[in-house]
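for the writeup, i need someone to sanity check this before i put it in the appendix. the sequnce is what the collaborator sent (i think, or maybe the updated version? ugh). structure was predicted straight from it, no edits. if anything looks off just tell me and ill rerun, i have time this weekend
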Amino acid sequence: MIAATITNINAQSGNNVSTVVSADLLVAMVITETSSLNFGSSVLTDASGGTIELPSNSITRIYGGGVATSAVSPAPTNASYNVTGNANQTYALVLPTSTIVTHTSISTGVFEMDITLMKARFNGAADDATVSNLSAEGSDSFTVGGTLTVLPNQVGGQYTGTFQVSVDYN
């Protein structure tokens, strides 16, 4: 004879916990150029070359070597940018270590120049930096300068080039 026993097991109510769920949503940052970097017109005073520094927060150039100021157009301008994104967020700026500008019509001789030591100055900042904060409205701005190296026997004329600037949240 087989006896079957059926036992009811009642689940005991246990402790419950409520878990907080969260998510952060970052709006894609947008960077807009409002003016391009232009070292303006300068005079090569001798064949030795030299440097032209355009500070990040000023269009007053600093000359070294055989290069001097010129009153001929165009005037120098700092590159300037506006940035938008999430309000009150910290972000970082990346500038190139160097970029090359090339003579617009001559491709022989010394027809390229390097721009190095690129630096940025954020809106209202006292010093150059690579990190800033977006305002309560989600905006910021900055200007860029650098140092242009004029090589010995540099060909006179107009030079152009491009460089990349990027921003991203920290």
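The CA atoms of residues 17 and 125 lie 47 Å apart. The chain has a mean pLDDT of 93.
thx in advance!!
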